[in-house]
UniProtKB/TrEMBL annotation:
Pfam families: F420_oxidored, P5CR_dimer. The lineage of its organism: Eukaryota, Fungi, Dikarya, Ascomycota, Pezizomycotina. One of its GO terms (molecular function) is pyrroline-5-carboxylate reductase activity. InterPro entries: 6-PGluconate_DH-like_C_sf, NAD(P)-bd_dom_sf, P5C_Rdtase_cat_N, P5CR_dimer, Pyrroline-COOH_reductase. PANTHER family: PYRROLINE-5-CARBOXYLATE REDUCTASE (PTHR11645), PYRROLINE-5-CARBOXYLATE REDUCTASE 3 (PTHR11645:SF0). Keywords: NADP, Oxidoreductase. This is Pyrroline-5-carboxylate reductase. It comes from the Eukaryota. NADP(+) binds at residues 11-16. The keyword Oxidoreductase applies. The keyword Aminoacyl-tRNA synthetase does not apply. Residues 7-105 form the Pyrroline-5-carboxylate reductase catalytic N-terminal domain. GO terms for biological process: L-proline biosynthetic process. It comes from Periconia macrospinosa. Residues 198-301 form the Pyrroline-5-carboxylate reductase dimerisation domain.
Length: 306
């Protein structure tokens, strides 16, 4: 059966846009089950603001349509021309650009002569609430309902089809719109958690949006320790990387075993690992992580006011 076509428009062509596009390529070429079982075929477009950036992205993502013009009709004349069933606009700019981007989207949508499909607007930034987004977007021409909005929080492992993505949709966003976003993100993100409370999206941002950086910091410290004690950088990184992959899979797949028990499984009582773990604990690793996540969360909350 032919798959329904969804248009996905990325606003901005930075780190997260490229991570998602790389992940789509990766998942398709690896024939991931989410890519194979998806009900949709995606028509991709990217709105950027610099012509040289458009050229650069065009060379990298030949299947995507790239434009610098928000009024470009190919972004908006979707339903009539290509039988597109729905349209998702992913705002992939920095949080401080979100208000301007919302105004651009609403103006461009309202200026398009045949806006037959009401796009769902998705953000991936912390702090900015669904109610604020709705007010910045304003009412869409030709519809008696506001733009459906969904807040998402992916992370950079989407680039290898291994992301974790949190989502929140306010009650006025339809189930179909949310389901389409879930399905799109599943292709690059085996973990999609739909949160019941909007405030938890900022917590997800501090834990899993920022999470890769915390884990990379740990891996970097482990590699440095290996090198300090004589391993080559190459060997240390290869071993730490694969250890992280395996530990990640164990954490995900063996949920019946607590993380404390998993630590215990590696620590023979009185053995070498136990001695090392005690140093991390005495030096306050859990407290340091708690404080780091707390600081991130505080910064995410402050974005509401900016
Ligand atoms: N990076 C992460 O690990 C991560 C993880 C989770 C969530 N996020 C969130 O994802 C969002 C994007 O982050 P990022 O790291 O991808 O940022 P980024 O690399 O700085 O990319 C932002 C892009 O937006 C473009 N842009 C800004 N205003 C624009 C406009 N009006 N029209 C079109 N393009 C515009 C910028 O263009 P120029 O190149 O011309 O400046 C830039 O290419 C942020 O809200 C961030 O909080 C990021």
């Amino acid at each position: 059966m032919p798959r329904a076509k969804l248009q996905i428009t990325f606003i901005g062509g930075g780190t997260m846009t490229c991570a998602i596009l790389d992940g789509l390529t990766h998942s398709t070429s690896a024939s991931s089950s989410a890519a194979q079982t998806s009900n949709y075929e995606y028509a991709l477009s990217i709105l950027v603001r610099r012509p040289e950036h458009a050229v650069e992205l065009g060379e990298r993502y030949s299947s995507a349509y790239i434009t610098c013009d928000a009024l470009d009709s190919r972004l908006w004349h979707t339903a009539e021309e290509s039988l597109v069933e729905g349209h998702i606009i992913l705002i992939c700019t920095k949080p401080q650009d979100t208000r301007e981007v919302c105004e651009t989207i609403c103006n461009a949508y309202n200026a398009a002569p045949t806006p037959a499909v009401l796009p769902t607007i998705a953000t991936m930034c912390p702090g900015i609430t669904a109610a604020t987004l709705t007010s910045w977007l304003g009412p869409p021409r030709g519809f008696h309902i506001p733009f459906p909005v969904v807040r998402t929080m992916p992370n950079t492992p989407v680039s290898v089809g291994q992301g974790a993505t949190a989502m929140f949709a306010p009650p006025q966003t339809g189930k179909l719109e949310l389901q389409r976003l879930i399905e799109f993100f599943r292709v690059v993100s085996p973990c999609v958690e739909v949160l019941e409370e909007e405030s938890l999206l900022d917590v997800a941002a501090a834990v899993s949006g920022s999470g890769p950086a915390y884990l990379f910091a740990m891996y970097r410290a482990l590699v440095a320790a290996g090198v300090e004690w004589g391993l080559s950088e190459h060997a240390a990184r290869a071993m730490v990387g694969q250890t992280a992959v395996g530990a990640g899979i164990l954490t995900t797949n063996k949920r019946e075993i607590s993380l404390s028990a998993m630590i215990g499984n590696v620590c023979v009582p009185g053995g070498s690992t136990e001695k090392g773990i005690r140093v991390l604990s005495d030096r306050g690793l859990p407290e340091a992580v708690m404080e780091a996540v707390g600081k991130s969360l505080e910064a995410n909350h402050r974005m509401k006011q900016s």
